[in-house]
Amino acid sequence: MIAGYSVEEGFEEGSYAWVHFGVRESDNAPVAVKFARESDQKSLERFMFENRILRELDGHPNIVRAYTEVGKATRGNAHKHYYVMERLKCNLSKWLDTAFTSDSYEVKVAIVKQIYATIKMIHDKNYVHRDLHEGNILMDIVGGAITPKLSDFGSAYDLSRPKKLTKPNKLMWGDLLLPPEIAFGIIDADDPNYKNGDYYAAGMLVKVIFIGGFDTEGFLCTLQGSIQRFKQKATGQMSDRYLSARKSREQRYQDYLEWCSAESAKFNDACKFDDLEDDELAAKLSVLVEKSSNLDYNQRENNPDELMRFVNGI
Ligand SMILES: Nc1ncnc2c1ncn2[C@@H]1O[C@H](COP(=O)(O)OP(=O)(O)O)[C@@H](O)[C@H]1O
Ligand SMILES: [Mg+2]
């Protein structure tokens, strides 16, 4: 497939790519090769951008390392764009399935701290990830040490080159962790609150990491479902037509606030970590989720330094 690497036939699938595993022949380093499914101009630009960010952040302990630039290689009988990166053990979702119960609170707190610090780091470079979920955080597991690494910057956004983001019907961000304020189309690229969406996702991931995937997933599905129903009811049109049906930002903002207050009681309930065997930790995590993921972004901790101080104090 690619000169210098022996690559296995088997692969893992994301929405935009196939990821094959293999080794670099020169030193037997385990590698993962990401092939883009699409090769039109727009998809290629995104793929190059994702690779460029990884290379720019190269050497950061919590960012997956890309070993090559984007190239073109044969996969099956097609020619596809690819890049090679370090191979990590698994994604967060798989880690939850396998090691979730055996790992201590301490380990989980360390994972959470690293995820928050890494988000802060990419934001300081003016990138927003926009697609943080269990499939895009990879786990490096060496001996007993577990290091989360952010990957898949395929939806990332460079805030130094702002464009209008709330184009009708064009929402970025992974489905389940789509921040409500983005779903209602009230945040533009020049709004400093835009970065907040990554922390919204991180807060929800804290729940995933401590409560377990399944319950949280149910909660997130219900939440997104309720946004869809609200949009439909408010406009009398299918929810995916909401942004074009509701042209006025002011009106969308009113919708959003109304939706938030209708859902906030359920959200506050979901913020609890009652099942944890450590009450003090449960209380802190609960505050962290509220600070990061409050449905109403006006009520989140908007100062990233303050948020980091809180996280580091857990
Ligand atoms: N470097 C890697 N090491 C190990 N597994 C990986 C690596 N990169 C991706 N994967 C696996 O492949 C899946 C899809 O990769 P991803 O980059 O998220 O593709 P997509 O852009 O299509 O979402 C991940 O969830 C993970 O399970
Ligand atoms: Mg992905």
What is the secondary structure topology, with strand pairs?
Blueprint: E1 5-13, E2 17-24, E3 29-36, H1 41-56, E4 71-75, E5 78-86, E6 90-91, H2 92-99, H3 105-124, E7 127-128, E8 137-142, E9 145-150, E10 157-158, H4 180-183, H5 196-211, H6 213-235, H7 242-245, H8 249-270, H9 279-293, H10 304-312
Antiparallel strand pairs: 1-2, 2-3, 3-5, 4-5, 6-8, 7-10, 8-9
The structure holds adenosine-5'-diphosphate and magnesium ion.
Residues 12, 14-17, 19, 32, 34, 64, 85-88, 91, 135-136, 138, 151-152, 154 line the site of adenosine-5'-diphosphate.
Features:
314 residues, alpha+beta, Phosphorylase Kinase, domain 1, Transferase(Phosphotransferase), domain 1, 2 domains, 5-stranded antiparallel sheet, 3-stranded antiparallel sheet, 10 strands, binds adenosine-5'-diphosphate, binds magnesium ion
Describe the structure.
- This protein is of the alpha+beta class.
- The protein has two domains: 5-86, Phosphorylase Kinase, domain 1; 90-312, Orthogonal Bundle (Transferase(Phosphotransferase), domain 1).
- 44% of the residues lie in helices and 18% in strands.
- The protein has ten helices and ten strands.
- The protein has helices at residues 41-56, 92-99, 105-124, 180-183, 196-211, 213-235, 242-245, 249-270, 279-293, 304-312, and strands at residues 5-13, 17-24, 29-36, 71-75, 78-86, 90-91, 127-128, 137-142, 145-150, 157-158.
- The protein has a five-stranded antiparallel β-sheet, with helices on one face. Strands 6-8-9 form a three-stranded antiparallel β-sheet.
- Strand 8 and strand 9 (145-150) form a beta hairpin.
- Helix 3 (105-124) packs antiparallel against helix 10 and helix 5 crosses helix 6.
- The radius of gyration is 20 Å and the shape is globular.
- 37% of the residues are buried.
- Bound molecules: adenosine-5'-diphosphate (ADP) and magnesium ion (MG).
